[in-house]
Amino acid sequence: PNLKEKLKNVTFVHNGILAIELDTFSFYENAENEINELISILKEEKTDDIGAIVVCDDATFLAEEWNNFLWATFTRSDPARDIYGVDSFIQNKHWGCIGPLIIDARIKPYHAPVLEENQEVARSIERFFGKDKPLYGF
What spatial distance separates the first Cα and last Cα of the chain, rounded to whole Å? Predict the structure, then answer.
């Protein structure tokens, strides 16, 4: 199947920021091919109102709130390897792109497992946040 068929979820995070869900990251050579195919597709579309595209594992989560967007985008991407752009170029040793900036923020095999809140622990510390308790107001 072509990449258009692999697009699982495409969601606006905010004006000008698009989250695109692709298959799970496997290795960089495959990722580069996927992103180049995405760039080819984007060149055929009108993208004037899109400044950034984040390729991710869960576009709905990314768009749910700013904390999710910031956390997932900037902890799951390596600026040296995961930044692409439509019509990218190098001018006077500076990288740039004419179209949208693309950040591959999918979980990589070398990343630590996703941190999930332990509900039992969360309930056990609630007592510290009540009125007249040491952490009240935080």
Answer: 50
Length of the chain: 138
Neighbours of 17 (CB within 10 A): 20
Radius of gyration of the CA atoms of the chain, in A: 19
Q: Are strands 52-56 and 17-21 parallel, antiparallel or unpaired?
A: parallel
76 is written with which tokens? 């799951």
Q: In order along the chain (138 residues), what is the average pLDDT of each group of 10 residues?
A: 77 96 94 94 91 97 97 96 97 96 97 88 84 80
- Secondary structure percentages of the chain, helix, strand, coil, to 5: 35, 20, 45
d(CA 57, CA 50): 20
Please provide residue 30's backbone torsions phi and psi, each rounded to the nearest 5 degrees: -65, -40
Alpha-carbon gap, residue 94 to 88, rounded angstroms: 11
pLDDT score, position 25: 96
pLDDT in tens, 62-90: 999 999 999 999 999 999 999 999 999 99
Q: Answer yes or no: are the C-beta atoms of 6 and 22 closer than 8 Å.
A: yes
